[in-house]
Write a structure and sequence with these properties.
Elements: E1 4-8, H1 12-21, E2 26-30, H2 33-42, E3 50-53, H3 71-81, E4 88-90, H4 95-107, E5 112-114, H5 122-137
Parallel strand pairs: 1-2, 1-3, 3-4, 4-5
């Protein structure tokens, strides 16, 4: 089964790196917070095996209103529209707001990891995606699985 992952990231080089590390994964790329919010509105529930989430999303804005949105807005939408059984990897290098997003997701019952893009390796990404695949194939029946 091909894993489907929503990646919320404004840096195309980062996206290409993750795609190269996991060529068997179907990535749906949201290059701005506004695009991500639209995708989350459309794809509610448990459509994705996992979500990869950045905070600072201002270099690839689609419309002017995107400039005022960031990963915290996307986090709020994830909590409201996505099943808590979908694990989230926050890969933001923004230490302050990365932690805020992790805390909000964790408190809402999501399994969430925080690995800064600076520390993200192929092995760490693949480990997270393996967890997501296993969680999809063998659901525990509860919400979230804790916090790493």
């Amino acid at each position: 089964m091909k894993v489907k992952v929503l990646i919320v990231e404004d840096n195309q080089l980062r996206v290409q790196r993750m795609q190269a590390w996991a060529p068997d994964v179907h990535f749906v790329w949201a290059r701005s917070a506004g695009v991500a919010l639209g995708i989350l509105e459309r794809d509610r529930g448990q459509v994705y095996h996992a979500i990869l989430l950045d905070h600072d999303l201002d270099t690839s804005v689609v419309v002017d209103s995107d400039r005022s949105k960031d990963g915290r807005d996307v986090t709020k939408a994830i909590i409201q529209k996505i099943s808590a059984s979908v694990p989230v990897l926050v890969h933001s290098t923004n230490k302050e707001y990365g932690r805020v997003m992790v805390e909000r997701l964790h408190n809402a019952g999501f399994y969430v990891e925080h690995i800064s893009m600076n520390d993200l390796t192929k092995e760490r990404l693949l480990d997270f995606l393996d967890y997501a695949r296993d969680s999809w194939e063998h659901p525990t029946g509860g919400i979230g699985a804790g916090n790493h």
